[in-house]
Design brief:
single chain; about 180 residues; mainly alpha; Arp2/3 complex 21 kDa subunit ARPC3; elongated
């Protein structure tokens, strides 16, 4: 149930306006948690809900035309983040594993989406300098994505671990 609530939080964090917080969403951390806690066959639902959010935002919030081809990389990344959570965090949980997933998820999104923007957009020249411009333009979004992923994943994985530690401590202490 918690994994689905976090997906709902991810959707709300994208839909509810929060100006100045470029890309500060619960998406990355929620997808990592979903992958770690839910069977892979349920990943399609999480990806579909986030894809529907992309459609809603594009068409209704931003009034842009919607082209599926503009989102295939993002949707593939959603599935990849779930798989990353599954591979790194489903069986054995540690601070190092969560930290690695937290670093890999937003970094892979940053590298993928800025590369795709460079390849498919007339905004950047098709040169090495243009690729660099694309990545530089994405840095503020990357920073906030990294922070928000760390915050959401840290809380999602850390709070249950802390509660378990406190329960174990209280049982040992006879409280």
């Amino acid at each position: 149930m918690t994994a689905y609530l976090l997906i709902l939080l991810a959707i709300l964090s994208r839909v509810v306006p929060h100006p100045g917080w470029f890309n500060f969403t619960a998406v990355g951390g929620s997808l990592l948690f979903f992958g770690a806690r839910r069977p892979l066959r349920q990943a399609i639902l999480a990806v579909a809900l986030l894809a529907a959010t992309d459609y809603y935002l594009t068409v209704y919030a931003y009034s842009y035309p919607f082209h599926i081809s503009d989102y295939l990389d993002t949707w593939a990344w959603y599935a990849g983040a779930i798989l990353l959570g599954r591979v790194l965090l489903a069986r054995k949980l540690s601070v190092l594993r969560v930290g690695t997933a937290v670093l890999l998820a937003p970094t892979s999104f940053f590298l993928l989406t800025n590369f795709v923007a460079w390849v498919g957009s007339p905004l950047y020249p098709q040169t090495l300098a243009g690729l660099g411009m694309s990545y530089i333009a994405g840095l503020p979004f990357y920073r906030n994505d990294l922070i928000s992923t760390a915050l959401v994943a840290g809380l999602a994985f850390g709070l249950p671990a802390l509660a378990h530690q406190l329960r174990s401590h209280n049982q040992t202490a006879g409280v």
